[in-house]
Design brief:
repressor, five-stranded antiparallel sheet, transcription, HrcA, DNA binding, three-stranded antiparallel sheet, WH-like_DNA-bd_sf
Length: 350
């Protein structure tokens, strides 16, 4: 619902005062903003109307009013004047992300940790497999009686490993066959290519070795899936657990529900979205907010960042800051994709 001009000014004054102080706001505080030349009675009438319409609420009969989730939403969507980052602030973000890491996965994780450190809030992030990534190395390492370590490395520098226990020890001949088989059939392939049909084809190709080596082959498939499954990482949750009045129990339960968390993070599509915690929503952390920002991996979606904090945040600055942060991260990741693409074309040429 569209609000009349004076009501917009009153609502903006209440929201900004509350976000800054955390205290209920009275008509006197609104008048001190200096943008309205009316009486206190007129302001009180407007505040009462805003309460009836669901934008404000009165925590106590003798207190002023505070914004509801609906009021905060209206302010962010229609009334807030976003802060414009300075060239120095942009350069500092770019410089921070340029120190990211040796591969795309570490760049994203380091970026999330940097954003948590800068904002002093919890940051969750998802990451996806870069488009041109292929398997560059697979190793099987004896690690004990009937125990073998599997190591898989991609062209983007990401590494996954897991242990596999067999019912019998492998002979050196079986181990050599398996290593050669993996090198011939997996190296140079994308982990996404190991679909069920391809897996069946490889199992048949193993011939007489299939019975003894099938547990290891299955473990290799599971390892490859870890690369393209959406990973969820959390940074700085401890920063919120110490905040007075914050729903720490709700936060812990929310962070433990990885599937629910992944579903929310998939909602990030462009710009920065703000989701307020409510009991009847997937983000059921009361008195809190979740800022979602997507990032790109070249021309494709790479994942998203989610900043979790209390309702009382400086959205005017935090939203454009987070948006530029995700844009800078996308540029850094674009360089990895471009380099991988060049290497892929170079290998094709050879």
């Amino acid at each position: 619902m569209e609000l009349a001009g004076r009501k917009q000014i009153v609502l903006a004054a209440v929201v900004e005062h509350y976000l800054r102080t955390g205290e209920p706001v009275g008509s006197k505080a609104v008048l001190e903003q200096g943008t309205l030349n009316v009486s206190s009675a007129t302001i009180r009438n407007d505040m009462a109307a805003l309460e009836r319409e669901g934008y404000l609420e009165q925590p106590h009969t003798s207190a002023g009013r505070i914004p509801t989730v609906q009021g905060c939403r209206y302010y962010i969507d229609h009334l807030m004047q976003p802060y414009v980052l300075t060239e120095t602030e942009r350069a500092e973000i770019d410089q921070r992300l340029e120190q990211g890491g040796a591969n795309a996965e570490t760049v994203v994780q380091n970026a999330a940790e940097a954003l948590s450190e800068i904002t002093q809030l919890a940051v969750v992030n998802t990451s996806s497999l870069p488009e041109f990534t292929v398997i560059s190395q697979v190793e099987v390492i004896p690690a004990g009686k009937r125990l073998y370590a599997l190591l898989m490395i991609t062209s983007s520098g990401d590494i996954k490993n897991r242990m596999c226990r067999l019912s019998v020890d492998l002979t050196q001949e079986q181990l050599t066959f398996f290593e050669n088989f993996l090198r011939e059939n997996l190296v140079g392939q994308s982990p996404r290519d190991l679909n069920p049909a391809q897996r069946q084809k490889l199992a048949v190709a193993m011939g007489g070795y299939m019975l003894s080596l099938s547990p290891l082959l299955h473990a290799v498939y599971e390892l490859s899936e870890q690369f393209y499954q959406q990973n969820i990482n959390i940074s700085g949750e401890g920063k919120l657990l110490l905040r007075p009045g914050f729903d720490t129990g709700g936060l812990v339960r929310f962070l433990e529900e990885k599937n629910q968390l992944a579903g929310l993070l998939k909602q990030a599509f462009s710009g920065v979205q703000v989701i307020f915690g409510k009991e009847d929503s997937p983000f059921a952390v009361t008195n809190s907010s979740l800022l979602l920002a997507p990032y790109q991996m070249g021309s494709h979606p790479g994942g998203s960042l989610g900043i979790i904090g209390p309702v009382r945040l400086d959205y005017r600055k935090l939203i454009p800051y987070t948006e530029y942060f995700s844009q800078s991260l996308s540029r850094q990741l674009g360089q990895f994709v471009e380099e991988e693409h060049k290497e892929g074309r170079s290998d094709d040429g050879e």
